[in-house]
Amino acid sequence: MSLPVPHPGLVISYSYLWANKHRRGQEEGRKDRPCAIVVARQTAGGETVTTVVPVTHTPPHDPASALELPASIKKHLGLDDERSWIILDEVNDFFWPGPDLRPVEPGKIAYGVLPPGFFRKMRDLLLKIHAKRKLALVRRSE
User: Fold this and answer.
1) 56, 51, 135: which is closest to 93 by C-alpha?
2) What's the rounded Cα separation, in Å, for the pair 108 and 111?
3) In degrees rounded to 5, what are phi and psi of residue 61?
4) How many CA atoms lie within 13 A of 27 on its CB side?
C-alpha cells in the first residue's frame, strides 16, 4: 500500500483512542474511523509526528467543542449520509505511519482532503480550545 504524505486537512482512516478510554487504561482504539490530520511535524530525529482529530456520528457532549461536517464535504470525502461531527477538544498524536492506520479500501488509507476554508475554521476552533487548556492529548504508542 502506498502511503500519502501526512498533511493538514487530509482525512485518514485511523483506530482512534478516545481520551476517556485512555484515562481508563485502554491502549487501543475500538473502532476505525475517519480522522482529520491537524498537523504533521518532524522531530529532531527525522520522525513525523501526526496529530489527528476524530469524526463521529455521536452528537458532541459540548457543541462548542465540535464542528458538524456539512453534507457536501461528507459527499466529497465519500462518507455516509448520517450527521457527523469533528470533535475538537481531544487529539491523538502518533508517529507516521504507525500501526493504527486502517484502509478505507484495499490500498488506500485516505478519504480525501478537507476544503481549505473548512480546515481553517476547524484549526481556529481547535486553537481556541487549546488556549483555554481544554484540549486532551493522547500520545499513542508504537
Assistant:
1) 51
2) 8
3) -65, -30
4) 3
d(CA 57, CA 74): 12
Q: Is the pLDDT of residue 141 over 80?
A: no
110 CB-near residues (< 8 Å, 6+ apart): 4, 10, 11, 12, 13, 104
pTM of the model: 0.96
Q: Which three cell numbers stand for residue 133?
A: 487548556
Could you tell me where the beta strands, DSSP code E, fall in the chain? 10-16, 31-42, 48-56, 66-68, 85-87, 90-95, 110-113, 136-139
State phi, psi for 93 to the nearest 5 degrees.
-110, 140
**Domain definitions of the chain by residue range:** 10-139
- 60-101 per-position pLDDT tens digit: 999 999 999 999 999 999 999 999 999 999 999 999 999 999
